[in-house]
Each structure stands twice: as structure tokens, then as C-alpha cells.
Amino acid sequence: xxxxxxxxxxxxxxxxxxxxxxxxxxxxxxxxxxxxxxxxxxxxxxxxxxxxxxxxxxxxxxxxxxxxxxxxxxxxxxxxxxxxxxxxxxxxxxxxxxxxxxxxxxxxxxxxxxxxxxxxxxxxxxxxxxxxxxxxxxxxxxxxxxxxxxxxxxxxxxxxxxxxxxxxxxxxxxxxxxxxxxxxxxxxxxxxxxxxxxxxxxxxxxxxxxxxxxxxxxxxxxxxxxxxxxxxxxxxxxxxxxxxxxxxxxxxxxxxxxxxxxxxxxxxxxxxxxxxxxxxxxxxxxxxxxxxxxxxxxxxxxxxxxxxxxxxxxxx
Length: 316
Ligand code: ATP
Ligand code: RIB
Prior knowledge:
Layout (H helix, E strand, L loop, with lengths): L10 E4 L3 E7 L13 E8 L1 H11 L4 E8 L2 H12 L2 E2 L3 E4 L5 E7 L5 E6 L13 H6 L4 E4 L5 H13 L3 E5 L16 E5 H8 L10 H9 L5 E5 L5 E4 L4 E4 L12 H14 L4 H15 L12 H10 L4
Parallel strand pairs: 1-4, 1-9, 2-7, 4-5, 4-6, 9-10, 10-11, 11-12
Antiparallel strand pairs: 2-3, 7-8, 12-13, 13-14
Helix pairs in contact: 1-7, 5-6, 7-8
């Protein structure tokens, strides 16, 4: 008789939920310039919701802690997250703050600029973090980003670690004060700008110096530092080795949410039993896939889509 497969440990996302108001433009406007854009779209976003959606679509059990307003945007975002398979029971509805919004411009190269009005995200407090939920998620991964109040993120990381979860911080958007959180973090995921700011690195972070930047960051707490490098892939640094995982060449449409896809896919692979390097390889592929689709949550692949993409790119 074969023994039953143990249930997957959950990914608990402590994070933001936004409605993304997206337009395409030929280039980013200069101060005072008015441009003709196109393709206006209203799409689910927010770094937390994007990461939760990515992890859930790739098969992980995902629980979400966060908040939306008591408005139509909030209702839509919760419905969409639930449809993606995210447990939305711990998402609060805040009566006197709107659901977060992000104004996003995507240029002809698929690059973006983003302005976020945090709204209800800024109302998430330590009291919203259920000790019972964390205790039941022991052995899983807590995923946080920096679109909630820093003290809430700090409390979430500290309490999750004490409850036996691995803590993963995606240090986005860049916030220098997040240096004070690093001692609560097991795995840090940061892009070049975020890694440079956290490490107080004087020059631009590149593929060449990411090893030294990662070493400086590891000295502040995380046992694993992953620096994502856009089209160049990602560097993974642990105590024993540093590897570069190149990204596949893809026809980029919109990079919005690529870092979120990386983080969610990485967490899903870890709770699925993958080792760090294998999880990061899958995350690079998932994130590159996501850049081929317009929008943030819209680009997060399912397991079937990612496996087909890996086969087509010759890496599956
Ligand atoms: P964003 O803020 O746009 O969501 P980010 O700055 O947090 O993203 P990046 O380092 O730009 O994160 O990208 C994360 C991952 O997405 C990369 O490791 C890579 O796998 C994929 N990616 C991003 N840009 C490209 C690209 N131009 N071509 C292929 N893959 C890409
Ligand atoms: O990382 C992309 C996300 O950043 C967008 O979905 C937007 O909502 C902002 O939070």
C-alpha cells in the first residue's frame, strides 16, 4: 500500500490589493506633456494579489491577509482572487478607505511607470494577522511585500517565523526603511534597484556585482538572496553558492507584475517541495512568460500554461 501524499503546506500572502488602471503610450510623457494613449484596461493588481494569484494558479494552497474598500473595485478584486483559487476569508472590507488603485503607463517597449494610491492597503494592521491562521500554516511560507505599512509587514514576518513558517520578503516597491526588516527574513527577493537601496550600494547593481551585493544583504539576515535582473534572469545567492539563471528570450508585451510572478511562482514551488535553485528556475520561466501578456494578474500562468511554455522553449 502506498502512503498518502502529505497535503501541501500553504503560502500565506500578507499584501496589497489594487485595481490597475492601465494605458499604453508610445513613450512616457514628459512633465506638462499630453499624449494620445490606447488600450485602456481595468485589471486586478497590487503586488500581494499578483503574487497570490501566481502561486494559486501554479497549484499552491494560498491564504491572503489584506484589505480592500467597501466599493465595487473591492468586490471585483475579491471575486477574481477567489476565482483564481486564493482563500480570501481574511481580506477585510474597510468602510472609510477606497480599494487601492495603481495608475500604470506601458510604453512601446513593454516598460511601465506606476503611481499607487494605497487606500485600504494602508489600513492593514497587525490585528488583521490571525495567530490561528499562522499556527495552522506552520511549515509553509509567508510572502510579504512593501505596499502595506512597514510595521504591519514587520509584525507579520516576525510572527510568521515564530509560528514556524519560512519568511519571504519581496522588497518592492523600494523602501530604504525596509533594511530594518531584514533580520526577520529567510529569503529576500529584490530587483536591481531594490537590492542596491537595501544594501546601500553606491553604484548600479548589475549581473557582475550582484554576487557582492547579495553577500552584503545576506550578512543582514536572509539565508538566501535572489536578485532579479529583468531580461538577464536572476541571481540566487545562498551560503554555499551563487548561480545565475538566465531568462528565456520572449516577445515582451508588458513587464508589469513580472517580479510578482517570480515571487509567487517561487513560493509555490517551495511549498511544492522544490529546492531553492529549482524553484528559482521555474520562477524565472513563469515571470518571463508573464511579460508576454498585457496586465499584471492577467499574465500569471497556470501550471498547464507554464509547462507548455517550458516545452516550447526547450527547457521543459
Ligand atoms: P516589475 O517591477 O516590472 O514587475 P521587477 O523589476 O520586480 O519587475 P524584473 O527583475 O524586471 O522584476 O523581472 C523579474 C523576472 O521577470 C526576471 O527574472 C525574468 O524572469 C522576467 N523578465 C522581466 N523582464 C524580462 C524580459 N525583458 N525578458 C524576459 N524575461 C523578463
Ligand atoms: O508589481 C506590479 C504592481 O505594482 C501592479 O499590479 C500595481 O498595482 C502595483 O502594486
